[in-house]
Amino acid sequence: MRGGEKVFEVFCELYPEADIFTLVADESKLSDKIRKHKITTSFLQRIGGVKHYKKMLPLMPFALESFDLTGYDLVISSEAGPAKGIVARPDALHICYCHSPMRYVWDQFPEYQRSSGRLTRKMMNIVAPFVRQWDVTTASRVDHFIANSNYVARRINKYYRRDATVINPPVDVSRFSIGTSSDVYICAGEITPYKKIEIAVRAFNELGLPLKIIGSGATESLKKIAGPNIEFLGRIGDEEMAHWFSRCRALIFPGVEDFGIVPLEVMAAGRPVIAFARGGAVESIVDGKSGLLFATQDEASLIEAVRRFESQGVEYSPEQMQAHANGYNRERFAREIKAFVDAALVN
Asked: pLDDT digits over 288-347, tens only?
C-alpha cells in the first residue's frame, strides 16, 4: 500500500463494480477498498509472487497479454511499468493513468544497473532493448494517456511520442494535522537507489543536525556511512508517520520523483520541504514559500540549502502550507478523473 496503491483506491471508489487484473498481489497487505473487488492475478503469482516478481521482467509482457479482457468496454490501467500493454477488444476504451514510463529501462536504467549485482547487470543488458521495444509498441494500444505530472507528460512524449493530460495524484490530507516543530529533519519513503538518500546522509554527517530516515529498503550501506546524529526508523505505521510529518523541522527530498506524494503529505502537516529542483517536486513546492529547492544533486548543494533554511526559514505559515496541500486532495482527483473518463466515453 504505497503511493500507487493509494491512487488506485480512488479508481476503486469511482468504479465499485470494476474487476481488477494485476500481475501479482498480496491481498493481506491491501486495503479493504481494494479487496472488495474481484482480483485476478497472472501466472507470475504462481511462479514468483510478490516476493520475486521484479526478477520476472522478461515475462511481464506475456503475463499481461494473457489476460482475457474481451468482456470489458472500459479499461483503465494504472502503471509505473508495463500495465498499459494489456490487450483490450477493438471497440473498448483504454485510458492509461501513467505514474511513469518504466524508469528501470528508460532514463534511470544506468542507476539501476549500478546498484545491481554482476549477473543482474548482464541480464538487464540483454533484456532491456526488447522490453523498450515492446513498451513503445504497446503505447499505441492506449486511447488516452493521463500523466501524474508535467514531468511525466514530457517523458511520455519523449519515449512514446504521445500527448498526455496532466491530473496530479490525490493526497489524503485528512490524515495529517499541524503539530509543534522539533529540530529533527526527516527523509521518508521506500529506500531505493533513485531516492538518493545517501546525499542526505553525507550532508547531515557534515551538518551534525538530527536526521531520521523513515522507510525500508537498501539501508545497510547507508548505515555504514551514517553518523550518530542519523537514525533509521525503518517501516513505521501511518500514525507514527503522521507524528513525524507534523513535528519535523523539514522533509529532505534529494531524489527525482515523478510527482512526489510525500512532500505534499508533509506540507499537509504544516511542515516545509527541502528538495532537489527536478522532477515533480518543482511542480508542488513553491520555492521560498512552502520549501526550498537546491539546484545540484549533491551534498554541497543540499548543505547550502539547509543552512539557508536554518537562517531564513520559509514564508508560508503551517496553515498556509496545509491549505496549499489541500489543493491536491482526493475529492479533487476523483472529480477530475471522472470528468475525463466521462468525456472520453462520450467522444
From this structure: 999 999 999 999 999 999 999 999 999 999 999 999 999 999 999 999 999 999 999 998
Which amino acid is it at 257? E
Quick count: other Cβ atoms within 10 Å of Cβ 334? 15
Beta carbons within 8 Å of 286's beta carbon, 6+ residues apart: 316, 324
* The three cell numbers locating residue 166: 496532466
Pick from 173, 180, 144, 149: which is nearest to 160 by CA?
Answer: 144
Cα three-residue angle 26-329-274, rounded to 5 degrees: 90
Q: How confident is the model over 173-191, as pLDDT tens digits?
A: 889 999 999 999 999 988 8
Q: In sequence order, what are the residues at sequence separation of 6 or more whose Cβ sits closer than 8 angstroms to the Cβ of residue 173?
A: 264, 265, 268, 322, 325, 326, 328, 329
Our CA angle for 65, 70, 72, nearest 5°, is: 110
Return all residues near 264 (Cβ < 8 A) that are at least 6 apart.
Answer: 171, 173, 284, 325, 328
Distance CA(189)–CA(6), nearest Å, equals 14
Residue 77 is given by DSSP the state: E
Domains parsed from the chain with CATH numbers: 3-170+330-346 (3.40.50), 173-326 (3.40.50.2000)
> Would you state the cell numbers that stand for residue 88, as one nine-digit string?
483490450
